[in-house]
C-alpha cells in the first residue's frame, strides 16, 4: 500500500484546488484511472527560486523514488511508498523528508482485501469530487546532465474503517496541514506524520471490479461500485461484532 491510485483532473483544476500555479508545461499526463509504479504523476510542491518569492506549483514526477546516489532507475518500482514511521531515519528517504516534501493529489487509491480464493479490490475516496492530498517526498536523479524527478507516497498504519480492508494507508493531509507540509524552510515534519482521523471518517470504501487488477485497463468504470455477495463483504470490525 499504496500501489495503485487514480488522478484524473487536469493541471489547471488541480492548481485551483491547491492554490497553486500550473508548472507542468507540456509534460502533464492525461487522466489516469489506474496509476501504477513508475508512471508519471502530478505533484504539488513549494519552492523558492533564487531572488524570488516562495511559489506553490503543480509539477510532473515519476512515481518511485530514486535517491540521487542510485546507480540507475531500476529500484524505483520498489520505492513507491515510504513508511511515515521511519522516513526521517532511512537513508534513502531522510533528506527528501526534511527538504523535499510534496502532495500527490488523487481521486482515491485502490486496495485489495484478502479473501477466500481471491482478493477483492476497493476504491477508497472522499466521493464528493474533492482530491485526497497524499503526503509525498521527492528527489532528483541525474544522468548526463538530464534530471529525473521521482517521488514516493508516505504510508502509515491504517485507522478507522480502512482497517477493514488493509493494515496500511496513505498519509492523508487535511487542508490545514498543506502549507506546513510543503514549506521547504521547515526541516522537521515529525508532527505531521500521524494520520488525521477526520479525513478517514469521511472516506468511502467502495468495492470495485477486479478489472483494476490489470494495468492495461484504464477507464472511469474502474472506480464504479460493484455489488458483493455476503461472502465477499468485509469482515465486521470489533465494534460491529455482536
How would you sum up this structure, described in words?
It is an enzyme of class 3 (hydrolase). Keywords: Covalent protein-DNA linkage, DNA damage, DNA-binding, Hydrolase, Lyase, Protease. GO terms for molecular function: lyase activity; peptidase activity; single-stranded DNA binding. It is a single chain. 11% of the residues lie in helices and 33% in strands. Strand 10 and strand 11 form a beta hairpin. The strands form two sheets. Strands 2, 4, 5, 6, 7, 10, 11 and 12 form an eight-stranded mixed β-sheet that branches. Strands 3-1-8-9-13 form a five-stranded antiparallel β-sheet, with no helix packed on it. The chain contains four helices and 13 strands. The C terminus is likely disordered. It starts with a strand and ends in a 35-residue tail after the last strand. By secondary structure, the chain is mainly β. It has one domain: Alpha-Beta Complex (hypothetical protein yedk fold).
> Which structural class do the helices and strands define?
mainly beta
**DSSP strand content:** 25-35%
What is the overall number of helices? 4
Which shape, going by the Cα principal axes?
Answer: globular
Q: What's the pLDDT, averaged over the residues?
A: 92
Helical residue percent band: 10-25%
The CATH architecture:
Alpha-Beta Complex
Distance between the termini: 30 Å
Radius of gyration: 18 Å
Stretches with pLDDT under 50, minimum 5 residues: 236-242
Q: Quick one: CATH superfamily?
A: SOS response associated peptidase-like
Number of domains: 1
Question: What is the string of helix and strand elements?
Answer: EHEEEEEHEEEEEEHHE
Largest sheet, if any? 8 strands, mixed
* Total E-strand runs: 13
Q: CATH top level?
A: Alpha Beta
CATH topology type: hypothetical protein yedk fold
Keywords: Covalent protein-DNA linkage, DNA damage, DNA-binding, Hydrolase, Lyase, Protease
GO molecular function, one term: lyase activity
Family: Belongs to the SOS response-associated peptidase family.
InterPro entries: SRAP, SRAP-like
Amino acid at each position: 500500500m499504496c500501489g495503485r491510485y487514480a488522478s484524473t483532473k487536469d493541471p489547471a483544476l488541480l492548481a485551483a484546488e491547491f492554490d497553486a500555479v500550473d508548472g507542468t508545461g507540456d509534460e502533464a499526463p492525461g487522466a489516469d484511472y489506474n496509476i501504477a509504479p513508475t508512471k508519471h504523476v502530478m505533484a504539488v510542491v513549494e519552492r523558492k527560486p533564487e531572488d524570488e518569492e516562495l511559489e506553490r506549483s503543480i509539477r510532473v514526477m515519476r512515481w518511485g523514488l530514486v535517491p540521487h546516489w542510485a546507480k540507475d532507475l531500476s529500484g524505483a518500482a520498489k520505492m513507491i511508498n515510504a513508511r511515515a514511521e521511519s522516513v526521517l531515519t532511512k537513508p534513502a528517504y531522510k533528506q527528501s523528508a526534511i527538504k523535499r516534501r510534496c502532495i500527490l493529489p488523487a481521486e482515491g487509491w485502490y486496495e485489495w482485501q484478502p479473501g477466500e480464493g481471491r482478493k477483492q479490490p476497493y476504491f477508497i475516496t472522499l466521493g464528493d469530487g474533492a482530491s485526497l492530498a497524499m503526503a509525498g517526498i521527492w528527489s532528483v536523479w541525474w544522468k548526463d546532465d538530464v534530471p529525473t524527478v521521482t517521488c514516493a507516497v508516505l504510508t502509515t498504519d491504517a485507522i478507522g474503517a480502512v482497517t477493514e480492508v488493509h493494515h496500511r494507508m496513505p498519509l492523508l493531509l487535511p487542508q490545514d496541514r498543506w502549507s506546513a507540509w510543503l514549506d521547504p524552510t521547515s526541516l522537521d515534519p515529525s508532527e505531521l506524520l500521524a494520520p488525521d482521523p477526520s479525513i478517514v471518517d469521511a472516506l468511502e470504501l467502495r468495492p470495485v471490479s477486479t478489472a483494476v487488477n490489470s494495468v492495461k485497463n484504464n477507464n472511469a468504470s474502474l472506480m464504479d461500485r460493484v455489488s458483493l455477495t455476503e461472502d465477499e463483504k468485509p469482515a465486521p470490525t470489533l465494534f460491529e461484532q455482536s
